[in-house]
Amino acid sequence: MGFVSCLGSAPSMAIYCHFLLLSLLLVPPALSQVSEFVSIDCGGTTNHTDSRTGLQWVSDSNLMRTGNSVSIQNPDGNLEQYKRRRDFPIDSNKKYCYNLATRERRRYLIRATFQYGNLGNQDAYPKFDLYLDATKWSTVTITDASRVYVNEMIIRAPSGSVDVCICCASTGSPFISTLELRPFNLSMYATDFEGDFFLKVAARVNFGAPTKDAMRYPDDPYDRIWDSDLVKRQNFLVGEARGTIRINTTKDIWVGTREYPPVKVMQTAVVGTEGTLSYRLNLEDFPANARAYAYFAEIEELGDYETRKFKLTQPYFPDYSNAVVNIVENGNGSYSLYEPSYMNVSLDFVLSFAFAKTRDSTRGPLLNALEISKYLQIAAKTDDQDVTVLNAFRSLSPGSPWANEGGDPCIPTHWEWVTCGKTSPPRITKISLSGKNLKGEIPPEIYHIRELEELWLDGNSFTGSIPDISNLVNLRIMHLESNKLTGSLPKYLASLPNLHELYIQNNSLTGTIPPTLLTGKVIINYEHNPGLHKEAKKKMHFKLVLGISIGILAALLLLLLGSLVYLLHHRRKNTIQKTNEPGSSFRASAKPSTAYSVSRGWHLTEDGISYYISLSKIEEATKNFSKKIGRGSFGTVYYGQMEDGKEVAVKIMADSCTNLNQQFVTEVALLSRIHHRNLVPLIGYCEEQNQRILIYEYMHNGTLRDHIHGLLIKNHADLFPLPSLCGYQLLCRLKIQ
Ligand SMILES: *[C@@H]1O[C@H](CO)[C@@H](O)[C@H](O)[C@H]1NC(C)=O
Ligand SMILES: *[C@@H]1O[C@H](CO)[C@@H](O)[C@H](O)[C@H]1NC(C)=O
Ligand SMILES: *[C@@H]1O[C@H](CO)[C@@H](O)[C@H](O)[C@H]1NC(C)=O
Ligand SMILES: *[C@@H]1O[C@H](CO)[C@@H](O)[C@H](O)[C@H]1NC(C)=O
Ligand SMILES: *[C@@H]1O[C@H](CO)[C@@H](O)[C@H](O)[C@H]1NC(C)=O
Ligand SMILES: *[C@@H]1O[C@H](CO)[C@@H](O)[C@H](O)[C@H]1NC(C)=O
Questions:
Q1: How many CA atoms lie within 13 A of 621 on its CB side?
Q2: Which atom of ligand 4 approaches the CA of 191 most closely?
Q3: 3-state DSSP helix/strand/coil percent for the chain, to nearest 5?
Q4: pLDDT beneath 50, residues of the chain
Q5: Rounded CA separation 676/469 (Å)
Q6: Residues 515-530, buried b or exposed e (16+ Cβ, 10 A)?
Q7: What is the pLDDT of residues 102-144, one digit of tens each?
Q8: Looking at residue 695, what is its pLDDT?
Q9: Can you tell me the distance from the alpha carbon of 55 to that of 481, in angstroms, rounded to the nearest whole number?
């Protein structure tokens, strides 16, 4: 059964269709291969059967709604499928794609053909690009209106369907005449490289052909096109050696069980009666590495003492050229196919090839057929996860043109509503679906589109809450205004490191706005959300708190500078000391009395040492947090006593910010090195089981200082996800220096 799905890429018209081409049951068994063929008559207005071949052609009118059907004068062979072509708009930003259903990992021949017909009143012949998925297949350059330009690709299907796309016209309007899909059953075209390379067919020639007509279905059950060597065109099989004759036989040829050339192709050949057989032909898009197969079958009756032995003399490949071809001996006797498998050879744009007989051979070289394909590197398609997200959006509006642009979202041209990064595989960096009348919830899949920088969903009717986008660390701009979104504003928005513009006005959001979103770092518009408000208390004190904390931070800076100077001085002294006492270790020079439990990479500094103190040690010291000595908005403070009797105040940070990071830890470390009469020395720190605990020296009369310090720490914690406030930044900078 042939199954075709299609996506028209017209923005103006939407199509999305699947249809069964033929049912296996209706086709006589002899033609069963045909049932798997897909033959699309592009621009054709009716379905029709080719009476000579029995091939069933379907019009693409249900597959492609963009472009016009244009009738052609002098169609090739007066064939129905060449009577009309499909012309696409001249828009270099658009691609027009046919989606062909495939079975993953099965091998196929895909063929696109182009016959332009007469130039008519167009002023230039078309020139445009052909793509298979994201891989550039060919540039189609029409120079002869009557010629049928054939592009063939042999692939192992990378997925459940492939896209054949036409795009990027540089002159004229792009068009297509036919599109054909022919499955293979066997392994003839298996290569070591098929996971990474398609095989772009460069030449397939039937030597000694009876007429100029190409040999194809039904002679070839796989409908390959075997060009006749009688065809005359520029740079195609020129420079034939003297004494070349054409031979044929009516005897059956054993062609083996793989997809070897059909018997009819093998029944004819050319022979270089003067000892050499040579030709020259141009190979489009070469030089390249190629799979170049020569097919031989002895179809002359050789006398008892006659031999036919020859070598490939040109091009010269050491591995191949030194081997003597003796068809009867190498193969399976006369009238039997032999093929030496030139699996990977490097060929030039102008291929001159020659076979020459060996001295002891009585007959000249013989050649029945040739097939040369270029290894074409498969280009990466847009990241799978990103495509999943885009598909979730498309499914919200299955009928709209924007949801039915075919092919890959990014290559060769990107869909109208997305922008792509330049990476390989491409990633989506922007989604613009403003005012598309979208309903329902914003697809939760959005969580996975990690490289997204801009999200424009404003002016739709999205309902539900804002989905989890905590993963979108690259998000800079988000427009969700004028929807019907409900629920609260997620706290983590404040910690998205690149978020710079947030528009959520005119929705039905509720709750409080995380205060860090209101510090000026993010351009935020949240009007017309009746249930959404700022944090009332904090707002009142905010300026005061900010003022105090800036003041304290400024003081801290001075102190820090001072202590840095001191530190440098002290360290120099220490180094001198150390060099003087060879046996002394680093640990010995630190103050052991303050070391409780070092379980992490923690800085040891000569003054104001903070240590990582394990939660169990803290539980021990505070007797499981039994004595509460204070409480502030920053958290609860407990009394404790360390192993060595040192009295401590233990603060459990009541901070909703759950993504603890090392940066904060380092900041605390920095604070701990600062001594000031208004500050209680920080002696330890713990971060376990989502708990963040600070351990201070206990001060019996420390209420005031404790208060100020608590305020500082509290603000510090609040500022933590927002590294733009001046104090914080300065601290960071100083730390780095
Ligand atoms: C051609 O055949 C297909 C199914 O095989 C059908 O869906 C389509 O409508 C037909 N087109 C025309 C123009 O009859
Ligand atoms: C390929 O396989 C299909 C069934 O899978 C069969 O119908 C068809 O005849 C085969 N083709 C050839 C050329 O053997
Ligand atoms: C086959 O070869 C004979 C000569 O051996 C020739 O007369 C005949 O025309 C050839 N037939 C074809 C179809 O080329
Ligand atoms: C072919 O051979 C060349 C050199 O021998 C190698 O670099 C290349 O990877 C091979 N395969 C293809 C598909 O080019
Ligand atoms: C050789 O050819 C004969 C038919 O001529 C065929 O039956 C046989 O399987 C072939 N043997 C091999 C090894 O290809
Ligand atoms: C608010 O959003 C609705 C759609 O949800 C829209 O029709 C309306 O124009 C918007 N109002 C303003 C003031 O933007």
A1: 28
A2: 13
A3: 20, 30, 45
A4: 1-32, 538-540, 575-609, 656-666, 669, 675-678, 703-708, 711-737
A5: 42
A6: ebbbbeebebebeebe
A7: 999 999 999 999 999 976 666 789 999 999 999 999 999 999 9
A8: 77
A9: 55
Give the CATH number of domain 29-185.
2.60.120.430
Whose C-alpha lies nearest to ligand 2, atom 5?
A: 185
What is the number of the ligand 5 atom nearest to the C-alpha of 335? 5
Residue nearest to atom 4 of ligand 3 (CA): 247
Q: Please classify residue 316 by burial: count the beta carbons closer than 10 Å to its beta carbon, then call 0-12 exposed, 13-18 middle and 19+ buried.
A: exposed
Closest-CA residue, ligand 5 atom 8, reads 332
Answer yes or no: are the C-beta atoms of 134 and 411 closer than 8 Å. yes
CATH class belonging to 598-732: alpha beta
CA separation, residue 725 to residues 84, 366, 719, 729 (Å): 68, 83, 7, 6
| Fold classified for 384-397+408-535 | 3.80.10
Per-residue pLDDT, 277: 97
Tokens 């928005």 sit on residue: 493
Domain boundaries, the chain: 29-185, 384-397+408-535, 598-732
Q: Are 39 and 110 in contact (CB under 8 A)?
A: no
For the chain, the C-alpha Rg in angstroms (whole number) is 38
pLDDT in tens, 3-51: 333 333 333 333 332 333 333 333 333 444 568 999 999 999 999 999 8
User: Rounded to two decimals, what is the model's pTM?
Assistant: 0.70
- Locate the DSSP E strands across 358-494: 366-367, 369-377, 418-420, 428-432, 439-441, 454-456, 461-463, 477-479
Encoding tokens for residue 278? 């040579």
Q: Over the stretch 174-218, which tens digit does the pLDDT of each residue have?
A: 999 999 999 998 888 999 999 999 999 999 999 999 999 999 999
Write the single-letter amino acid at 380: A
Nearest ligand, measured from the Cα of 40: 1
User: In this predicted structure, what is the pLDDT of residue 524?
Assistant: 94
C-alpha 30 to ligand 2 mean position (Å): 10
Contacts of 172 (CB under 8 A, 6+ apart): 90, 122, 124, 125, 126, 127, 128, 142
